[in-house]
Each structure stands twice: as C-alpha cells, then as structure tokens.
Amino acid sequence: VAGLSPMPVPSHKGMMAPGELAAAIRKKNLHCPVPRLLCLENTHNRSGGRVVPLALHRELCAVARDHGLRIHLDGARILNASVASGVPAAAYAEDVDTLMFCLSKGLCCPLGSVLVGSREFIAGANFARRRIGGGMRQAGIIAAAGIVALETMVDRLADDHANARYLAKHLCRIDGLDVDLETVETNMVNVDLVGPGLDTARIISLWQEYGVEVSGRPPSQVRLVPTHDHGRTVIDEALDRIRTAMDSLVG
Ligand SMILES: Cc1ncc(COP(=O)(O)O)c(C=O)c1O
User: Fold this and answer.
1) Which CATH superfamily hosts domain 157-250?
2) How many angstroms separate the CA atoms of 202 and 51, rounded?
C-alpha cells in the first residue's frame, strides 16, 4: 500500500544501536530500494514494552537525518513511555516528522489512533485513508471517547505499570515460569516458559482451561498486559489460577 520495502534493524532488548542503524542504511544502488524513512517504535512491544530513552531516541534520529531519511515514530504506546520515564511525549515528537499513538490499549478507548504530522502530511494521509476504504463519517463518537481517554486515562497508566511489576514478580515464583524483570518497565509481562516440555501453545490451552486468556509469543513465551480492567483483585485471582494450572502439570 505504501510502496515501501521494509528493512529491519536488529533490536537489543528493544534498543536499536545507532552504529548498526548507520551501517544498515544502504548507499544508492540501482538494484535496491532507496532508503527514505526510519520507523521507530516506543514503547517497544516485542521486547516487553520497554521504553527507548530520550537520549538514544535522539541519537537514532540524528543518524537518520545525517543520511537524509525522514522519521516516523510508532508511538502506539508513547504515553506509557512518557509516564514510565517522566519524559513528555512532546519531547519524543520533537525530532520526528510523524507520530501515531493509540487511544485504545491502556487509554481504554474501544478503538482509535491519532496520527500527528504537518498539515500537508495529514491532508495526504486523509486522502490515502479514503483511497483504501478507511473513511468514516461517524468518527465523532470515537473522538468523544478519545477526549475522555486523553483527559482521564493518561496518569493512571502508572497503575498499570505497577500492576505489571507486581504480576511479573509473582509469576517468577511459580515453577516453570520466569520473567526478565529488567524488561518490565511499562504494562507488559512476557513470561518465559522454562519448564521441560512447556511451550506457548501448551500453556495457552492449559491456562484457558483455568479461565486465564493470554496471548502467545512463540515458541516459548506468553504475554500478559494489565490494563484498566485488571486491578489487584483480578491479578491475584489470575495468579491463583495460573498457580493451580501449573501445579496440575506435576500433580
Ligand atoms: C506497536 C503498534 N503499532 C501500531 C498499532 C496499530 O494501532 P491501530 O490499529 O489502532 O492503528 C499497534 C496496535 O496493536 C501496535 O501495537
């Protein structure tokens, strides 16, 4: 749709290394697409919702600028990054051309994301959206929920982060499960399945039998993400059920 050819740069627990980024930006070559755009993500989902620090973000943006690239920040969870680090989202926005963030997820809207950029860019994006069938006349209903989200849901993301740390700490105490606690900076908990014969598919279906639904990070991780609906009572209940499920494997 965008006419882009993606070229992933490795991440080290969610962090791109500026030197590796510079090395990955190809010189002009008749046989290859011309590098034009750096896409960053913050927080970084696959690494467990880690926050890319502002200093590293700026270094990466500087590398991109030196090579004439434009920069898009996939900030689906930029407000989680902001609440966890105390850095205003606007500071992350300063060095990029375009940014998106989600009103759903931790901010609790049933749907909706916001795209931020120059007037000219947004006019182009509206056109592109219409062209692929994404036009919507009733967007005001979603926007109303979005306003509630922005006015009342941002500060409480800190509760989700504290709940995730609590959940992670207690999951580590269950035989067969482990969490790299260093990675739990926001509201995601990637659980390593370290017991013999434990894999993602097995754990998803086992925990389902005990009423706990989680998403998979195959081959040997599952992911839990506490949000507004998962306060301490719900988390304690989930932990009890997970403990019982894991006990059933040895019993
Ligand atoms: C990192 C990231 N980027 C982008 C998106 C897309 O969000 P939306 O479907 O609201 O545009 C998601 C949604 O899950 C996401 O997790």
Assistant:
1) Aspartate Aminotransferase, domain 1 (3.90.1150.10)
2) 30
